[in-house]
Amino acid sequence: MDQAYNLKYNGSYLEHKYGDQVRIFQNPVSQSLLAQMCRPEVMQPMLNIYVEKLYLILFEAMVNELYPRHEVTWDTRMKAVCPQGEWNGEVLHQATRSVVVDLARAGTWPSHVCFNYLSILTNPAVCRQDHFYINRRTNTKGEVIGVDVSGSKIGGDQDQSIVIFPDPMAATGGSLSHCVSHYKDQVKGKALFYVALHLIITPEYIARMKKDHPDVQIFALRLDRGLSAPEVLSSIPGTYPDKECGLTDHQYIVPGAGGVGEILNNSFV
Question: In sequence order, what E strands does the chain have?
Fold first, then answer.
C-alpha cells in the first residue's frame, strides 16, 4: 500500500513535491467513496452515482479555492414583513465566465455534473459546456502512441473564462494535453486559467502536464503509483519522480479502476 495514504488526516491536501499547481486530496470521505467505486463488482447504475458524488466533492473544493467572490446584499423572504430581512455577505462572483469541457467519452458524465452545479452556483447565462471527442491511439501491441480527435462542439470564445476539464482517469496526460493545446491555440480569447479535475492521476501524468502545460491547475482525489518500488511508496510523493510508476505497459493505472470510460457508457466493446 502506498504509505502516503497512511498519513494522519489534516483536513487538507496530501503533502507532495510536485509543485503548487497540483492538489491531491487527503480526506476519508473521498478516499472511501473512490475505493468503493473502483471495486470490480461496481457497474451501472452505481458507477454513475459514485462518480457524481466524487465530482461534487472535487468541484466544490476547486470552486472554493479558485473562483472569484464578491459581496452582495440580497433580500430574503423576511423582507416582505421586516425591513431588516436582507442578507449581506460574500458569494461566488455571479458574472464569472466558465467553460466546462466534456472529453468524451469518460468525461461526459463528470462534465455534465460540474456544468449543472456551476449553473446553480453562478449565473447560468455565463456558463457553457463544450464537447471534445478524443481517444487514445494504440499500436498493434496495445501501447498508447498518441491521440485521435474525431470532432468537437465548442460554443464560443474562452475570453476571461475559467476553462475546466473534468476527466476521471488521468493516465498518461496525452489526451488532456492535446485538448488544452487546442483551446490555447484554436479557441478565440484568453482564458483566465485552466483547471483539470480528476478522480485518479499518476506520476507519469503529472510529469507530462508539468512539461506541456505547467500553468494548468490540477485537482485529483487520488495519486496512484502502485508499480513503484517499496522505498518509493514509503516516500513523500514526488521525492523520486524518475522512479515513480503508476502505469502498466499498456498505460493502464495501477491500482486504478479499470475501464471507467467503458463502464460509464455501458460499452459492449
Answer: 22-24, 69-75, 86-92, 97-104, 127-138, 144-153, 161-166, 169-170, 193-201, 217-223
Nearest Cα to 170, choosing from 253, 235, 111?
253
The CATH T-level fold of domain 3-66+92-226+249-264 is Rossmann fold (3.40.50)
- What is the DSSP pairing of strand 127-138 with strand 22-24? unpaired
Residues counted in the chain = 269
The residue type of 264 is L
pLDDT tens for 62-85 read: 999 999 999 999 999 999 999 999
In this predicted model, what pLDDT tens digit does every residue of 24-50 receive, in sequence order? 999 899 999 999 999 999 999 999 999
Chain centroid to Cα 262, Å, comes to 18
pLDDT > 70? residue 142: no
CA separation for the pair 110, 90 (Å, rounded): 27
Q: Where are the domains of the chain?
A: 3-66+92-226+249-264
Q: What is the CA radius of gyration of the chain?
A: 20
Residue 73 Cα distances to 95, 121, 191, angstroms: 16, 16, 29
Q: Which of 240, 202, 225, 223 is nearest to 24 (CA)?
A: 223
Determine the Cα–Cα distance for residues 6 and 113; give it in Å rounded to an integer: 30
Q: List the one residue out of 204, 116, 101, 90 whose CA is nearest residue 156.
A: 101
CB 194 within 8 A of CB 224: no
pTM, to two decimals: 0.90
